[in-house]
Amino acid sequence: MTERAPCGRAAKRFPPGGLDARRASRATLIILLAPALLLYAAFMLYPVLRTFWNSVHTIKPNNVPAFVGLDNFRELLGHDWVFWKAVGNTAIFAIVATIADVLGGLLLALALFSGAPFVRFLRVVWFTPVLMSYVVVGIIWVWIYDYDWGLANVILRAIGLGSLEQSWLGDPHTALWSVMATHIWKWLGFNMIIFLAALYALPADVLGAAELDNCGWFAKLIHIIIPMLRPTILNLTVLSFVGKMMIFDLVWIMTGGGPLWSTETVSTYVYKRAFDWNTFDLGYPSAIAVLWFLIILAFIFGLTQIMRQRDRLEF
Amino acid sequence: MNPLSAAKPFAGKSVAYPRRAPLAAFALIYTIVSGGPFLWVAMMSLRTTPEIFASPYALPSSIHWEKFVDAWTKSNYGTYFWNSTIVVVTAVALLTIIGAMVAHCLARYRFRGNRVVRFIVLSGLILPPQLMILSLFQILLEYRLYNTLTGLIIVYVAGHLAITVYILEGFFAQIPQDLFDAARLDGYSDLEIFWRITLPIGVPALFTTVTLNFIILWNEFLYAVVLLTEDDKRTLPLGIMHFMGNHQLDVGMVATGLMIAIGPVILLYAFFSETMIKGMTAGAVR
Q1: What is the ipTM of this complex?
Q2: Residue among B184, B285, B286 whose CB faces A19 most closely
Q3: A98, A282, B116, B216: least CB-packed within 10 angstroms?
């Protein structure tokens, strides 16, 4: 057995018998790591590689997969208008809902931070939608948007704005925005909790000093609180944006991508092409999934890079 | 009263008061907006569909508990509930123990390949389910795990290992090394150290990941909808969707189903709200 340098040094520091608690025998490591690594290899890495492989093939049931090179991607980028419609919808969703989530969460956190009564109770209630499944939330809001007896139209009629009543999910002009409103409603509480923790962590002496300087509430918010919350804001923006790039559940439950593709997102389109359309080809939807994953990856790296540069410039 | 403070009504603390009323009003409105829909469903779950259509927003006039019995036995919600329970409890237990094993290794031991293992496991944080779902469908078909609860459990464990390890490792790394040195001197074996030191001390972190995984898996929809199609295998979210699809107009019964799905979550939340809030937001702040 050849000795490696670090082992030799460790052996000198500790009496023989392996007393260094930073080291474990190979057997221990294998016992502790093997289940996770085997699961990972079989049910994460292999599926990912297989999706990449799928994306350059045509795969029909009971047929040998046929290699088609980049044809799937060419078709996708050049001729598939439903895909581009889905990309547009997903982009609108990701951008608008992210901004609303972050600003709304900040607003709720500030309301609690600046002394609303019953803070402990309110944050618990306001967080409740985060815990509920998309199925529960989706069905409740399908009812709220119902044309005849849904709460949205009932309220509009009650306050004399009956002319504004809509078939919220049935009209291509309002469907995407209605689903988006539900999504924002579900996640506001999440952002609120993160902001609230960040607000409580702000140094009290800085806020106190601002008060002594007779700094108004709004000025304090703009000049002191928001700049100090910047890392939290950027963090939540990335998290929320990336999550919405992949949105599937709520759209699938509330509208199924309809009416007239007005709420189709990239993920619902992948699902439809794989399981609902009678093309029965897993290669083409795999190509969509691969392309979209690469775009998300580019966004993650791009956004984190921008954040780092900004930080460097400021300090 | 001090005449000076009366003369300057906007000085000092009095400035806070004009703001209080709008703030309280805002708080009240948002409380209704965020909590109201659940109260509404709770009321509808106790009313029959004709009652609901007569007046959707009325309080229950007579309470129909028997709807829960109906839902449980006649509408198959009992099966859905047990499927969900089996899947979630098994997956969370496996995730906790396997995740803790990996987190303990990464946080405690220096070994060759440490960085590679960490990179592989944590890469799961940025791999979206959408990227794997189509090939997992093929793979589970080939392994005869398609349409089985076992298959779904395995997929859940693999998919949530990354976030579990990520949270646990952060906590385990903060346990003082002295404890482990002392245990080693006392003659504890590696596995005893894991079992008798890391796990008991790590209980708060384990609670966090258990809560997070429980909520997310209880609510999970995408994997389940692709990997399960038989009615007696469906989990609660799928079962409700299926029931909704077949009985669109039976609003009362759907509401009862919704209450069965959110009941356990609400019950846990009533007792452990702080743990659950902490758990759900644990992975977010990096």
Answers
A1: 0.87
A2: B184
A3: B116
